[in-house]
Amino acid sequence: MRTGLAPVIGLVLTLAAATACAPAAVSPTNSSSPSTTTQTHPTPAGPPSATWTSAPLASASAALPTPPTIAIPTSTPAPPTPVIPAGLYITSLDIVPDPPTRGSALLFYATFANTTGAPQTFRWIVYIYRPDNPNTSFGETTVTLSSLALGAHTEQSLGFWRLPLGGPCENFIARVAWMDQNNKTTSFRTPNGKTYEKPFTVCAPADLPSATPPPPSPPTPIATPPPGLFVTDLRTDPNPPTLGSNLVFYPSFSNTTNTVQNYRWAIYIFQADDPTHRIGETSVLQTAFPVGVSEQQSLGSWKAPVVGPCQDFAAQVVWLDQNNKANPFIQPDGRSFEKKLTICPP
């Protein structure tokens, strides 16, 4: 009987010993002893699905760092900048003697501005007109060949023009024109795009005080600002405008930036004698302006009330920035563009 119990008692003792040697189970969420240090343990051997729990997390009351707030930049169009488009222009014309007199050989000194980016060689001539017949020349100088470097330069025309003695003072207009290979002439323009004209009066020597004619003034250097978006003209429909009519505006834009420009713009109306307080405006319009010259139609219209006789107004083309602040467009010569409007009853 005792012999049969011995194997059973041995088996019981073996199982008890194995149980005593097994490690105690660790609770992964034991909060009785929180730790602020995270420890890393090696991954025990076992099947791929086995996981290992690290030390307990820090207390929930600990403040977490707040990520910084970064302002996102916004892209806004740069304000237009003055620029003289590339070309060959005339900026002034001096006449010697000054003042010009009858019987004198009048010499002409033209100041040219070369903004083409390269030296220019060309033929030019000075035409004389009477104010009452501006389409038919009354006289001319000799054709002159000039070669100009970049910048402003004064050139003397070949030959001269003379008004004979024996008459009262007379008014004239001088224009400078360049001549192509077919001898066709085209009037030179100023940097703001207008045909250059020099009005002058020729009198008898006895009608003028004696004075030594001054030499022609030296040319003024012309800066070439960066490219920009400009307004060069403005027309209305109907034209001429009438009181009581819905006026639609058509400004002419010149984009010399070599890229499409996006602007919000409108037309502001002022009394001619009070340019600081606008009395009307069109709706704001967003436009993508192509490179070169383009004419755009305003959004909406403006009406001058039918009150009294003809009235004088001024129109400005403005662009609005991201804060809706209105800025007047400028001309290529840097001046703010403004269009005078005289509006009469129909």
Report on this model:
By secondary structure, the chain is mostly beta strands. Among the domains are: 120 residues, Immunoglobulin-like (Sandwich); 115 residues, Sandwich (Immunoglobulin-like). 6% of the residues lie in helices and 38% in strands. It has 1 helix and 19 strands. The strands form 4 sheets. Strands 3, 4, 5, 7, 8 and 9 form a 6-stranded antiparallel sheet that branches. A hairpin with an 8-residue loop joins β10 and β11. The longest helix has 20 residues. It starts with a helix and ends with a strand.
Based on secondary structure, the structural category is mainly beta
CATH superfamily annotation of the domain at 88-207: Immunoglobulins
CATH class of the domain at 88-207: Mainly Beta
Task: Please give the radius of gyration in angstroms.
Answer: 43 Å
Major beta sheet, specifics? 6 strands, antiparallel
Task: Bin the strand percentage.
Answer: 35-45%
In angstroms, what separates the terminal alpha carbons? 140 Å
Predict the CATH topology of the domain at 88-207.
Immunoglobulin-like
In CATH, the architecture of the domain at 88-207 is Sandwich
Number of extended strands: 19
Determine the mean pLDDT. 78
The low-confidence parts are 15-61
The helix fraction, in percent, is under 10%
Order of SSEs: HEEEEEEEEEEEEEEEEEEE
Q: Specify the overall morphology.
A: globular
Task: Compute the number of helices.
Answer: 1
